[in-house]
């Protein structure tokens, strides 16, 4: 957490501490929001990125230990040694402080039962991470290779090193990695109203009594931070600050991709054996999802349908039975070929190589647009452009069917809730059908 006195950056005078928010206001805010449990890491490694030794313990020790206990491989990478915690130290004293903080982190991991966790030390300058963005990104890439989940400080945390570490982690993470942020100073220095957390993509980890005790013991290992400063001043982490990390709850929020999912990612998926990466032809989830989605359509017959992101063409073939004409499209050549094969012998089906928000994906005069597990992969700008395309291409009184898995794919900038919110906020569309299932959601909006 360091890189300067608590409540300051390293260059700010010690006489100007910032006020500490009461932990109670955050507990009350959590109680008002029904947050899902933070998902424990999957089969790949969990990588925890920290700007300074102790960030990872303060913000994510309980979840990290739980994931490790569930069998996940855990890697920790620390950008700096935290040597600038006390600006008054000379060069040799700073070096000694950095060495001490490395030892403290190893001791903290031992307290958490994470003795076998690999720690990568990058040794970048404390309090100057933003100036070393490129170096930090390059150093993080090999550590994040193959990671299922990445935890990093929030990119809007008021400490500049924390923000820089979070930004670099997002840039370095593979497209297949689920990125999450953990706040540190944000919750200490501000109330929820002041901070404005993205509650719509937040999750919580509730620590067991044993986890809370081990986390408390781990934090106590950072003696350089919890004890009196070398000049006799207050500690970096005084009791009123530590109280924020001893509530029994750790808060995380998803750090979504800022760009749309790359077409190359889907091309790789379709290149797998069988060319059906989601088992659309055989899995019960896919078969049932199609049946439910089609049952949500309020009309028995449509004149002209468009299906961007047609995939293997299984849904396209079923749509053809209810539509006078269907234009299916996909950005992946293998998917286009699969859909053409699936709809061979159906002359009223046209299959194109096209992608949203290209106008060819939804021709003018369409009275039904069907998008199954497509829209959450678009960038924010492309999602906005797609809604404009729908409003222009779908005739008044026409329907738009959107289906999404309720999870959040690593490659996706949005989840199903965010896409749905965009439709609900758009006065050009009126909600007709709202289906919420255990694994997927489907909604039909009519063009006004």
Write a structural description.
With 448 residues, the chain is of the alpha/beta class. It folds into 2 domains: 23-254, Rossmann fold, CATH 3.40.50; 263-447, Rossmann fold, CATH 3.40.50.150. Helix content is 36%, strand content 21%. It is built from 16 helices and 14 strands. The chain has helices at 23-32, 55-69, 91-111, 133-144, 160-172, 185-189, 192-195, 209-220, 223-226, 239-242, 263-270, 284-296, 314-320, 333-342, 380-393, 416-424; strands at 46-50, 74-80, 118-124, 149-153, 178-182, 202-206, 249-254, 302-308, 323-330, 349-353, 366-372, 394-405, 429-436, 440-447. Strands 3-2-1-4-5-7-6 form a 7-stranded mixed β-sheet, with helices on both faces. Helix 2 packs antiparallel against helix 8 (209-220), helix 3 (91-111) runs antiparallel to helix 8 (209-220) and helix 4 (133-144) packs across helix 5 (160-172). The protein is elongated, with a radius of gyration of 25 Å.
SSE blueprint:
Layout: H1 23-32, E1 46-50, H2 55-69, E2 74-80, H3 91-111, E3 118-124, H4 133-144, E4 149-153, H5 160-172, E5 178-182, H6 185-189, H7 192-195, E6 202-206, H8 209-220, H9 223-226, H10 239-242, E7 249-254, H11 263-270, H12 284-296, E8 302-308, H13 314-320, E9 323-330, H14 333-342, E10 349-353, E11 366-372, H15 380-393, E12 394-405, H16 416-424, E13 429-436, E14 440-447
Parallel strand pairs: 1-2, 1-4, 2-3, 4-5, 8-9, 8-11, 9-10, 11-12
Antiparallel strand pairs: 5-7, 6-7, 12-14, 13-14
Helix pairs in contact: 2-8, 3-8, 4-5
InterPro entries: GlcNAc_PI_deacetylase-related, LmbE-like_dom_sf, Methyltransf_12, SAM-dependent_MTases_sf
Biased composition (Low complexity): 7-20
Keywords: Zinc
